[in-house]
């Protein structure tokens, strides 16, 4: 069985780095722009321990990390790749306590690094990557950092979405919807359907997930309870026009 590691929760999140290389295009945000090409990397000045930091807008759980090194066709010796050798990846929970502290031990620099989370159920609020390789000083370049996991949304109110920006709308009161989609285990509350339960029932349907078809009404029935405002056939009685 293959379990999904989740989505890339790092994409477009706020980032900083301890310094910026003199050429202004190598911003810290380049590591979370979705582009792995070497033309769109971060780049610090030479320092003793340059650091890149990502701050999650809302806490997440993490399954794995993928770090793209700078692979440059104009660097056949791999001197740019070596900058990432021995890097340290540190993650923190919302209380600033270290969750994971990983140090690269590969004998040679890699194009792409994959790091598994040792605490996949622990909430993470911040990720730091520090360069340690000195030649004669350290420079940190990251072409992309992908972090696979999912948001941890609040229960009061119940929310979902990349940054927990949407409210759940489940049939069962107090039920938590799925963080990525907003869908509910019990179905959408009466009168609504669709991903995120944010679509009002189409004409002629009502109830949980809009699964029920209205009786013979002269107008649209109520999306929640199926009640008709009037009956199309004389002799039928409200609210369902069945008798």
Automatic annotation (TrEMBL):
InterPro entries: BG_Antigen-Binding_Lectin (IPR051941), Galactose-bd-like_sf (IPR008979). It comes from the Eukaryota. SUPFAM superfamilies: Galactose-binding domain-like. PANTHER family: F5_8 TYPE C DOMAIN-CONTAINING PROTEIN, FTP DOMAIN-CONTAINING PROTEIN. This is Uncharacterized protein. It comes from Lymnaea stagnalis.
């Amino acid at each position: 069985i293959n379990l999904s590691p989740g989505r890339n929760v790092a994409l477009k999140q706020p980032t900083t780095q301890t310094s910026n290389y003199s050429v202004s295009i190598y911003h810290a945000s380049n590591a979370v722009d979705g582009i792995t090409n070497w033309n769109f990397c971060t780049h610090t000045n030479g320092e003793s321990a340059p650091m890149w930091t990502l701050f999650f807008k809302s806490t997440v759980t993490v399954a794995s990390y993928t770090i793209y090194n700078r692979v440059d066709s104009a660097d056949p010796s791999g001197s740019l790749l070596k900058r990432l050798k021995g890097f340290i990846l540190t993650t923190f929970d919302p209380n600033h306590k270290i969750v994971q502290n990983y140090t690269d031990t590969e004998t040679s620099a890699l194009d792409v690094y994959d790091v598994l989370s040792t605490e996949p159920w622990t909430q993470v609020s911040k990720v730091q990557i520090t360069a340690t390789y000195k030649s004669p000083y350290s420079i940190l370049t990251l072409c992309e950092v992908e972090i696979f996991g999912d948001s941890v949304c609040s229960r009061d109110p119940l929310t979902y979405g990349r940054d927990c920006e949407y409210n759940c709308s489940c049939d069962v009161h107090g039920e938590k919807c799925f963080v990525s989609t907003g869908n509910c285990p019990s179905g959408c509350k009466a009168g609504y359907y669709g991903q995120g339960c944010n679509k009002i029932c189409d004409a002629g349907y009502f109830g949980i997930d809009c699964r029920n078809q209205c009786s013979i009404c002269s107008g649209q029935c109520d999306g929640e309870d199926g009640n008709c405002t009037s009956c199309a056939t004389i002799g039928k009685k409200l609210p369902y026009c069945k008798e």
